[in-house]
Prior knowledge:
- The protein has 217 residues and is α+β, with helices and mostly antiparallel strands.
- It has two domains: 6-16 and 113-216, Beta Barrel (Lipocalin), CATH 2.40.128; 31-108, no CATH class.
- It has five helices and nine strands, in the order βααααβββββββαβ.
- The chain has an eight-stranded antiparallel beta barrel with strand order 2-3-4-5-6-7-8-9.
- α2 (46-65) packs parallel to α4 and α3 (68-86) runs antiparallel to α4.
- The longest helix is centred in the N-terminal third of the chain and has 20 residues, at 46-65.
- It is globular.
- It starts with 5 loop residues before the first strand and ends with a strand.
Amino acid sequence: MRQTGLALVFAFLLGLAAAPACAQPVPSFECAKARSATEKTICDDFSLSWQDQQLNRLYGDVRQLLAESARTALRDEQRAWVGKRNACGGNGDCIGQLSRQRLQALSAQVNPRTLTGSFSYAEKGLAGDMTLVEFPGKRASGYIATVNTSTTHSCTVDMAGLTVDGQTLTWNDPEESDGQHCRVDITIGPGGAVVAANTCRSWCGMSGTFEGRYKRR
């Protein structure tokens, strides 16, 4: 499997066919040593593992920007949040909601008008969601999971190394696919975002897509 910052998995949800799965994101703890219901749920879910990975990275980045006294307050705040998240037990929806809220809160400490947020797919016949995380230094990561409700084809997009220019996030695939480089542009606007892709069809298959309009949750 290709090791790139963008990994797209094209699969039949009904189990008729599937492409090789991309590597599971590594959360902030060792899944082999996971004991609590919360940790096990995170390890078993790609999206939750991705969010935990981004949280760990963003927390470290924000901490480095703060004065020593403020770091202590941030640490205590993070510990309190972890306790609240762990109270979710194995409820993945609860874990995901709290994780997205925490990502938003951490990002806002760097940029009050942060692009970090959760979005739902707004195109007819397509369902799914997108999570964006903005880091210091005009950097970002993104995760998209969509499904074509008429063909039951899904598409998962894990983007690392997005660049930020105003309200636009851009990812350029450093590797070629069929002699071309995939490019993804995400433009944030009032109430949502528009995702455009250029020469990315081979990543998602003929019946899977992630392009279109997303509403901010």
